[in-house]
Design brief:
about 200 residues
């Protein structure tokens, strides 16, 4: 009996580590789907409910849609006002401005990303695919002009093992970075609109 108890005491921690590892392998990032905008156009496979990770952010900006839009599409300027973007290289005629179907490379969260514009509706919608090591993403922006300014919504869905790992290890990083991006866009747009 004493030998059986010793065996159980030795095996129990080993079994619990095995169960913990199995659980962790199936763990998925938390997604708050209730905030997802019904106005966003998602490519197949990137719908928030099907993605491995999803985030929604929005902000009110007291500036015209044209001003906000121009700040968003001038990607070559992003590092000057949104420090989570680096080394932006745009494959367009002026090497700075996003256009329909434009490809661009950049770094965000220190990761190199290859992006291609998928949706481009001036002053209203822009969305791009982003590919990195072990991750595919779709990032979209929606500008809804109203009296006195615009509601700006940005959402991103991600799929792949790197998306799962990153969003489990840093569950608020993408939301926080998009909030930071929106806040910087608000400041830049409101100040350039008032000049």
């Amino acid at each position: 009996m004493k030998t059986l108890l010793m065996a159980v005491n030795i095996l129990l921690p080993v079994l619990s580590v095995g169960l913990s590892t199995a659980r962790d392998a199936n763990e998925r990032p938390a997604k708050e789907l209730t905030a997802a905008s019904h106005q966003i156009h998602w490519p197949v496979g990137f719908e928030p409910k099907n993605a491995d990770a999803f985030v929604h952010n929005e902000i009110w900006i007291q500036a015209p849609a044209m001003v906000i839009w121009n700040n968003l599409i001038t990607a070559g300027d992003w590092p000057g006002w949104y420090s989570n973007s680096l080394d932006v290289q745009v494959e367009s005629s002026d090497r700075r401005t996003l256009q329909a179907k434009t490809a661009f490379t950049w770094k965000t969260f220190g990761f190199p990303i290859q992006s291609t514009i998928n949706e481009f509706i001036p002053f209203s919608r822009i969305g791009w695919f982003g590919n990195g090591t072990g991750i595919k993403a779709y990032h979209t922006w929606l500008i809804v002009e109203k009296e006195g300014g615009c509601q700006v919504i940005t959402e991103e869905s991600q799929v792949g093992p790197s998306a799962i790992k990153f969003n489990i290890e840093q569950p608020t990083a993408m939301h926080d970075a998009h909030n930071w991006w929106l806040t910087a866009l608000k400041y830049r747009s409101e100040h350039s609109a008032s000049r």
